[in-house]
Amino acid sequence: MKELALVFLKLGAIGFGGPAAHIAMMEEEVVARRRWLDRQHFLDLLGATNLIPGPNSTEMAIHLGYYRAGWSGLTVAGICFILPAISLTAGFAWAYTQFGQLPQVAPWLLGIKPAVLAVIVTSVWRLGNKSCKTWQLGAIGGSVLIASLLQVNEVMALLLGGTLGMLCLRLPKTITSRYRKIFPVLLGTSLGVLSARKTQVLMAVITGTNGAGFASFSLWQLGLFFLKVGAVLYGSGYVLVAFLEGGLVHQYGWLSQRQLLDAIAIGQFTPGPVLSTSTFIGYLIGGVPGSVVASVAIFSPSFLFVALINPWVPHLRRSRWTAAFLDSVNVSAVALMAAVSIKLGQATLTSWPTWVIASAATITGLHWKINLAWVVVGGGVLGWLSSLINTCAN
Q1: CA distances from 51 to 47, 313, 337 (A)
Q2: Interatomic CA distance for residues 313 and 9, integer angstroms
Q3: Nearest CA to 330 among 46, 77, 86?
Q4: N or C terminus: fewer CB in 10 A for the chain?
Q5: Of 53, 14, 101, which Cα lies nearest the Cα of 229?
Q6: What pLDDT shows up at residue 176?
Q7: Segment 148-163, tens digit of pLDDT
Q8: Is residue 72 part of a domain?
Q9: Structural domain count, the chain
Q10: pLDDT tens digit sequence for 112-165
Q11: Mean of the per-residue pLDDT values of the chain
């Protein structure tokens, strides 16, 4: 239990870059270094995690804790992964209310972001080699990758990829020999007609973000709001922004637009899950009690969902049909990680220092068995040095 706690405290403290980066670090830590489980079972847990609502990286931490040490491990791993993020965010919230501005962390992020990109690329390479068992699975992964780059909703991509992949892999050869080649085309066409925006609008309706604004406040209202968000949130951090803006700014009137943007910024440049934004928001609205209520409410559904589905994951391998579905979902999940790395690369690799840091970190991760946590720390130091040199030169 001590080892489990220390591992996930470390991952929570250095987990910059969003869910894809967190999962990549977990894969390196618990599969490549500590060998707590094999890569196939890690992929199965990842596929199952992507099919349920909630923060993917937090749910992966909970899954791994449950696999390692049962119910106690589930609790310890989840709390330890979340704790660094909400502690830092609470500290920033206190400073924000005292001084009215955010800390200056841009020089460090200049190097951390390309290093995190390298961590994701390294993990995608490892997991991709394991998940692309056949050319059909490779075609499914490629289709999901393209669809994700075209802004198709992640859950729809996973479900369609899993279903069509299962049919392609398990239908009798007499049926699929004629139509097998059209399955990837059918998948790509189906994904292309889906809109991420439609799903976001649906979830906005579910969470009730279309009402008239009012500014009354109670801890019960705050807790229920974040509980609903944690229970239905799918997709990226941008979906979270839509929920928070609709509910906290327009419906309840608890935050201004500027405060919400500052809260999102805090969630982006602190390590760990981006849902720690709730801690910052809860503190702004209701002080220490508000931060505790918001944090507990938004993360609680993840513990419940994982506890319900984790025991069933091994059983999915026993049926050839569900195993085929799981294989297809797994390769689709890796494709989503690849899409995140491409999008992050477009936003991050904007200068020659970022290219140098990303290239060096990727080569290090692929060719040397070094703890990727040091890659992230080293990237931050190089970013700070680069910013310092530019300041002196100017």
Answers
A1: 7, 12, 14
A2: 26
A3: 46
A4: C
A5: 53
A6: 46
A7: 777 666 656 666 776 7
A8: no
A9: 1
A10: 778 777 877 877 887 777 777 777 778 888 888 887 777 666 656 666 776 777
A11: 76
